[in-house]
Amino acid sequence: MKILKAKLSTANTEIFQISDLAIANHGFVLEDILNGADMINPIEVHQCTNEGTMGALGKEYKKNLLKVVKGSQRVTTAIKLGYTHIEGYYV
Prior knowledge:
This protein has helices at about 30-35, 70-80, and strands at about 5, 15, 20, 45, 65-70, 85-90. The relative contact order is 0.38. The radius of gyration is 14 Å and the shape is globular. The mean pLDDT is about 90. Strands 1, 2, 3, 4, 5 and 6 form a 6-stranded mixed beta sheet that branches. By secondary structure, it is an alpha/beta fold.
């Protein structure tokens, strides 16, 4: 388990498995972290309940989806560097 930890952690941070996170597939990375700098702040994650919600064509939304609200570039950078987990907190 390879964890990307934040430099400024708070008491309510948790470790999230990157494969469980839903992020925007934009392909942007943070060059400073790629070049060896620390991740300053943890990512912000929202757990969607989606109880009884239907999407397009009557397809149900995934329940308990973990959406990255702030920090998707940190997640894509962590993936590129081979990390499996990242530090964050629920919002």
